[in-house]
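Bug #2210: token dump truncated for Large ribosomal subunit protein uL4?
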Amino acid sequence: MPKVSTYNIAGAQTGEIELNDSVFGVEVNEAVVRQAVLRQLANERLGTHSTKTRGLVRGGGRKPWKQKGTGRARCGSTRSPLWVGGGTVWGPHPRSYEQKMPRKARRLAVKSALSDKVNTNELFVLDEINLAAPKTKEVVQIVNNFKFAGEKVLFVTDHDEIVTRCARNIEGVKAVSTENINIFDLLHYTKLFVTKSAVAKIEEVLG
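Reproduced locally. Full output below:
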């Protein structure tokens, strides 16, 4: 089982913790991680883009000029795609970009990302996060205590709404609860802080 150090919010080491090998010690599967990232980004697309075909554009009911004898090309409608203001050919229409992925594969992607954080020493386990006051500067102080100013930092807690709100206005910092962990955040943020209670919850769900 992988072992990592535990810290308090002041940045001082307080001990060690053994992590579940089936969650934090799996072999990184890059193919599954890539598929999971693409799925998440695709599912976030709204797909509300739309264009009008010649049948949807207003106007064009009367034939502009007679078929023969004018010397001009024959034309049946001013809403033809060839005309300015006409319809659009092969334009986008509302659709869903949703991609399916097996639950086991999605969980393997998250496990791979967590294991990679352990392998690269970018996962830090905090005993708990006790803020002196529900203020943004308290979370900034935690980041500064670890000398991670300017880094992209992700906090994972077990339903700590105060930390989530306090980290909301800090550029490059985000806080989520255990059920909102996703593959994109794990890859996007370089430093990962997880509380002991969150570690237990993650191991319970993914183990």
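Output looks complete on our side. The helical segments are 21-24, 30-43, 103-119, 136-145, 161-166, 183-188, 196-206. Marking as cannot-reproduce; reopen if the truncation happens again.
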